[in-house]
Amino acid sequence: MSDFSTECYEGALPPRLEGRVRDFLSAQGLRYEPGDFTAVVRDTDGSVVATGSLAGRVLKCIAVDERLRGEGLTAPVMTALRSRAFAQGLRRLFLFTKPQNQGMFRDFGFYPISHTSDMLLMENTRNGISDFVASLDRGPQGGVHGAVVANCNPFTLGHRYLIERAAASCDVLHLFILSEDKSAVPADVRFALVRQGVSDLKNVLVHPTSDYLISSVTFPTYFLKDEQKAGEAAGRLDLTIFCDYFVPALSITRRFVGQEPFCPVTAAYNRLMHEMLPPRGVQVTEIPRLEKGGCAVSASRVRALWKEQKWDELRPLVPDATFRYLSTGVWD
């Protein structure tokens, strides 16, 4: 390793080095995406020969020059990233790699969660996802168990309509609210507003997703150079995780989703559900959007009205608890 040096950077890389890292990753089939912390290994000529970044609890963009495989260049990158994560109090970590690299990262204490033909998701806890799904309330056994996965940013009457329709078709409805805190409404507030908003639906069980469904952990945008292909590959991985763990643990046989006429990314994800879930024993049902005033009730519309403080227009679109939070900041 005397011919190589490891450099670590907080936040953005220096522009010239960023260009070199971008070109290096592109040559490895990855698309550059900035991280919170980046490790770069260079040779005596200053060329980038290995790199990796940390974003939250995700180790990403890890690559080693193919000509130098076997030189131990992954180790300094992994050591730097894990040390930084642990210094921030992050103990549970995730990483993406290609399926053929599983053995290499097993040596660093990472265990496979699920994989597709393009990508493998690993975590540094042996039974992390299995323990998580085992902790979820399964509800009464028997009958039809369905699922809805939603962000509810914020919880609207459109969400309520979807959940009510889904619950009417099931004996038990498992409602998963995204746990990642990257929304306009904080995760704990979203979860509380949903629980208040469906408390009268006695067959609905509200669950967090942790990092395992529709998060930056399961939806990496950098993993393939082609952004559209990367989005599809990430969607396939996310749905594979759902089928591998959540479906058998909770006896789910139906998944409900709102029709998506506006967002092409969500519409593509819905199409993937129709392709992937039925062969795994899960029927997919799309429910038409609730409309008010000739327009679909959407969280994006509510957020826009919230930003503009158009309370009279916003009020008919959300439950009481959501309106109270948006107008006063009080939610409990």
UniProtKB/TrEMBL annotation:
NCBIfam families with a match to the protein in the record: cit_ly_ligase
Name assigned to this protein: [Citrate [pro-3S]-lyase] ligase
Keywords, alphabetical: ATP-binding, Ligase, Nucleotide-binding
Function in brief: Acetylation of prosthetic group (2-(5''-phosphoribosyl)-3'-dephosphocoenzyme-A) of the gamma subunit of citrate lyase.
Catalytic activity, as annotated: holo-[citrate lyase ACP] + acetate + ATP = acetyl-[citrate lyase ACP] + AMP + diphosphate
Domain of life assignment: Bacteria
Enzyme class: ligase
Enzyme Commission code: 6.2.1.22
InterPro entries listed in its UniProt record: Acyl_CoA_acyltransferase, Citrate_lyase_ligase, Citrate_lyase_ligase_C, GNAT_dom, Rossmann-like_a/b/a_fold
UniProt KW Nucleotide-binding keyword: yes
Keyword flag Chaperone: no
Record gene name: citC
Cited Pfam families: Acetyltransf_1 (PF00583), Citrate_ly_lig (PF08218)
N-acetyltransferase domain boundaries: 1-127
Gene3D superfamilies on file: 3.40.630.30, HUPs
UniProt organism field: Candidatus Ventrousia excrementavium
GO molecular function, one term: [citrate (pro-3S)-lyase] ligase activity
